[in-house]
Specification:
The chain is α/β, with parallel strands linked by helices and about 140 residues long. It folds into two domains: about 25 residues; about 100 residues, Oxidized Rhodanese, domain 1 (3-Layer(aba) Sandwich). The chain contains seven helices and five strands. It has a five-stranded parallel beta sheet. InterPro entries: GlpE_sulfurtransferase, Rhodanese-like_dom, Rhodanese-like_dom_sf. GO terms for molecular function: transferase activity. This is Rhodanese-related sulfurtransferase.
């Protein structure tokens, strides 16, 4: 106990580091599947998946996946009615890196969407895979 008291900042740093290491593994239990760009293309081509781009407007206009529906993350909860017809279809959420789209997936799951996927690595992974983008 004395060691902890004398080294509280070191102990807290170690605990936080450990928490940050295990945090990504909790994604698996959220009910949202993390998929790569190739899996996303398969869902789009074979299962008529909706691509939901949750980035800000300027990011979207710089380049996005063809036929993507654009609803910024901050507006998603208010605009869920626009997605109602996709409730039984696969939805692939995308942002720049996969973080905001992960939050969007949580919002969609809570709204009753069952077949929700997060593009792991977001548009950065899409670009690294050499896949095309459209500009608006």
């Amino acid at each position: 106990m004395e060691f902890i008291q004398q080294n509280i900042w070191t102990v807290l740093l170690a605990v936080m580091s450990g928490f940050m290491l295990v945090m990504p593994s909790f994604r698996r239990f959220s009910g949202v599947k993390q998929i790569g760009p190739q899996e996303a293309v398969l869902l789009m081509n074979h299962d008529e998946a909706l691509v939901l781009d949750v980035r800000e407007q300027s990011e979207f206009f710089d380049g996005h996946i063809a036929k993507a529906k654009h609803i910024p993350l901050g507006a998603l909860a208010k605009r869920l009615d626009e997605l109602e017809k996709y409730k039984d279809k696969p939805v692939v959420a995308v942002c720049r890196s996969g973080s905001r789209s992960g939050m969007a997936c949580g919002t969609l799951r809570r709204a009753g969407f069952q077949n929700v996927h997060n593009l792991d690595g977001g548009m950065m992974a899409w670009e690294r895979a050499g896949l095309p983008k459209e500009r608006k």
